[in-house]
Amino acid sequence: MPLNNRLKEFRARINVNQHEMGQLVGVSRQTISQIERGDYSPSVTLALKIAKVFDAKVEDIFSYEEE
Amino acid sequence: MTNNTENMTKIKKENKKAGGLFIVIMIAAFFVGVILGVVSGVIGDNFDVGMIAKGIYDFARTYSPLMMAAFALVFLTIGFIEYGKGKRVFKKWDGEDEDTIEKAEAHISIALMISSVTTIVVYFLAGVSFTSDAVFNFNGFWGMINPILWFASMLLTLVFVTVLQKKAVDLTKQINPEKNGSVYDMKFQKKWEESCDEAELIQIGKASRASFKAVNSACLTIWMALFFIDMIWRIGIMPMVVVCVIWLVSAISYYSAAAKLAKKSGKK
């Protein structure tokens, strides 16, 4: 499933590394890395948690494009 | 109703498409089986397989404890080297570069796989040593050395496999601090799984599925091999019983777990 994301960009804005980001949303550093690389699409719950960290909308961080 | 009719049409179409090749494979497998059966019978009737079996038995009686020791020594050394490589790479990691930490985790995975393979092979050779009377015959040079080799190999394998697994798990926990569980804990696997997140649980699921498929293929292949080997060596029903028990346990546990998970996902 092609899910684009700007997680790395948003993460850089608040100056947290992948491990810290993982701690904030309750997942591992590896999962954050996989999301950023596009290797893993987060669940709705996780996407909402991520958006909440940045006080942004889910659609600002994640976008879906038809192949 | 229309959806169900369309669905049934789709199912019939898929079955028809794949069915032809399936029948061809079944017929080919039947003829291969017939040929192998005839060949096994010819070998059994015309070759002194007792001599081959005696040769294997004599070899095992003399050398199986030595093979245990050699295998454990070589492979555990490789395991610890892999662990060491993983640790060195981890120390260079800046906390962000995923390529670096992937290399470290690859070395750790290899170390863990080696520890499991070493345990299985050493246990196998330990059984072979006992069956071939290598351990307690006390005749000649090897008769005196083999009991020492056997007990030392078993003990050192158990100790060093545990040490290697502990080191690999502890290093994994340094890389992933959210992970819980100690190798010494009887509930280690449960605690570790509980500390896995959604992505890691999906990976575990995919790996389990791959393992299930591999066990299925392996059990079928081994069953076929034992079927034909029995024609030559008359090995009895025990080997086939063991393989089929493992096959059954794998299939029943997998489908039971899948059914349980499907039920659970329906609850709020």
What does this 3D model show about the protein?
The complex is a heterodimer of chains A (67) and B (268). Chain A has helices at residues 7-13, 18-25, 29-37, 44-53, 58-61; strands at residues 3-5, 62-64. Chain A has one domain (3-55): lambda repressor-like DNA-binding domains (434 Repressor (Amino-terminal Domain), Orthogonal Bundle), CATH 1.10.260. With 67 residues, chain A is mainly alpha-helical. With 268 residues, chain B is an all-alpha fold. Chain B has 2 domains: 31-183; 196-262. Chain B is 85% helix and 0% strand. Chain B contains 7 helices and no strands. Chain B has helices at residues 2-46, 49-92, 98-131, 140-175, 188-194, 198-233, 238-264. The longest helix of chain B has 45 residues, at 2-46. Chain B is flat, with a radius of gyration of 25 Å. Chain B starts with a helix and ends with a helix. The mean pLDDT of chain B is 89. Chain A binds chain B through residues 17-19, 22-23, 26-31, 33-35, 37, 40, 42-43, 46, and chain B through 95-96, 98, 175-179, 196-200, 202.
Q: What is the assigned CATH homologous superfamily of chain A?
A: lambda repressor-like DNA-binding domains
CATH level-3 fold name of chain A: 434 Repressor (Amino-terminal Domain)
CATH level 1 class label of chain A:
Mainly Alpha
Number of strands of chain A: 2
Strand order of the largest sheet of chain A: 1-2
Radius of gyration of chain B: 25 Å
Helix content of chain A: 55-70%
- Quaternary: heterodimer
CATH arch. level architecture of chain A: Orthogonal Bundle
Given the C-alpha coordinates, what overall shape of chain A results?
A: globular
Q: What is the string of helix and strand elements of chain B? A: HHHHHHH
Q: State the helicity of chain B in percent bands.
A: over 70%
Order of helices and strands of chain A: EHHHHHE
The main β sheet of chain B shows up as: none
Spatial separation of the terminal alpha carbons of chain B: 29 Å
Question: Segments of chain B where pLDDT lies below 50 for 5+ residues?
Answer: none
Largest sheet of chain A: 2 strands, antiparallel
Structural class of chain B: mainly alpha
Number of domains in the coordinates of chain B? 2
The number of strands of chain B is 0
Return residue spans of chain A where pLDDT drops below 50 for at least 5 consecutive residues: none
